[in-house]
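Handover notes (outgoing to incoming on-call)

Open items:
1. Alcohol dehydrogenase: sequence verified, structure written out, both below. Nothing else pending on this one.
2. Nothing else urgent.
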Amino acid sequence: MKALVYHGDHNIALEEVQKPVIEKPTDVIVRITKTTICGTDLGIYKGKNLYMRDGIILGHEGVGIVEEVGSSVSQFKKGDKVIISCITACGSCDYCKKQLYAHCRDGGWILGHMIDGTQAEYVRVPHADNSLFKIPNEIDDEVAVMLSDILPTGHEIGVQYGNVKPGDAIAIIGAGPVGLAALLTAQFYSPSIIIMVDLDENRLQLAKELGATHAVTPTGDIKQKIAEIVGPDGVDVAIEAVGIPATWDISQEIVKPGGHIANVGVHGKPVEFQIQDLWIKNLTITTGLVNTNTTPMLMRAVATNKLPVGKLITHHFDLDQIRHAYDVFLNASKENAIKIIINAD
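Alcohol dehydrogenase structure tokens:
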């Protein structure tokens, strides 16, 4: 089969590799129909995860058709159309029992990271009963890809961890796919002000179409720009959705006393924590990797057309073009790219 294989920093290649097989009775083999590229994949490509093993197939998002089922799998059968969760969960360890599926002792984020992933024609999914979701007929396959990772990530680690409440003023720093997913799902909780912060004017325009009340570029005095919208104290919730020191710094600058900073971005280097200014502010600061425990709820919302998720999809490529797709996503601002769909059929 064809698959995108990692060989080290800035070294990936589309190759012919062996098709996966059932290894444990809880496995299934899924024939990938559509997958995508995540910012985390770009981080791996650029060397953020130096412990990655040479030869791993990248990717942790996608939808497909169940091809083969292990003997212990009870919830899925051959021919089922499924969403592959970015998080693999055994369902029985101590972390899974707390719904901390991200830290499953025999799973978590392993696809495209510790084991072969979804940027391929086929993938082996361990613990399938707890790591796949059947796609309702009402959800388009391309939209379903957004439920693999970005929608639950933006919702759980951004909106829920940020404790967004009715009437809040919130700022989302970073209008990439996860930041826009946080924007969409924040509206479930009726904040009064949603400020999107980004350098990309095209992304800011899309954010306003998707429900942002204000769009701000982080140039000049960003604290003053936010103060002109919400007052001098700042926002109730700052959601950091990029993962670089500059956006973390903005989050610390603009949050009010008693507020929340929810870090969603994947950081590859240390940041400065301004504890000398923040110790007195009674802040709640959260970090996290998505657990996907809200995916079923988000599926229902998407199925009833409550979320215009399809607007996040900007580009389409075939699997044979995936190297070019990476180049496009690496130059997202120039290419006006938000979310890319890779057709593997």
